[in-house]
Amino acid sequence: MLFDTDILIWIQKGNVKAAKLVAGEESRNISIQTYMELFQCARSKKDHHLIRDFLHEFDFFVLPLTENIGHRAAVYIEEYTLVQRLAVR
């Protein structure tokens, strides 16, 4: 199963339902984009360690950015950034 950033943030904030969903899956994957987004929110080295420990504890595999995924991401960004007012940090 491929999990998005929001699910992982919910778990980190104590959402039991999200944690059970993730724990119930045998295969836990995140994209490299999700990995980077998690670390982008870190404010200290302690946060970095907590994120790494969390990903290790749940045995997540980080999927690389392929050419196809990169192209699709660019298309979605071009199509939805102005409509949805996606924030750039």
Short description:
The protein is mostly helical and 89 residues long. It is built from five helices and two strands; from the N terminus they run H-H-E-H-H-E-H.
Kindly describe this structure.
The protein has about 90 residues and is mostly helical. It has a domain at about 5-65. It has helices at about 5-10, 15-25, 30-40, 45-55, 65-85, and strands at about 30, 60-65. The protein has a two-stranded parallel sheet with strand order 1-2. The longest helix is centred in the last third of the chain and has 18 residues, at about 65-85. The protein is globular. The two termini are about 30 Å apart. The mean pLDDT is about 85.
What percentage of amino acids are in beta strands? Answer: 5-15%
Basic shape: globular
What integer is the average pLDDT? 85
Distance between the termini: 28 Å
Number of helices: 5
- The unreliable regions are none
**SS class:** mainly alpha
How would you characterize the largest beta sheet?
2 strands, parallel
Count of extended strands: 2
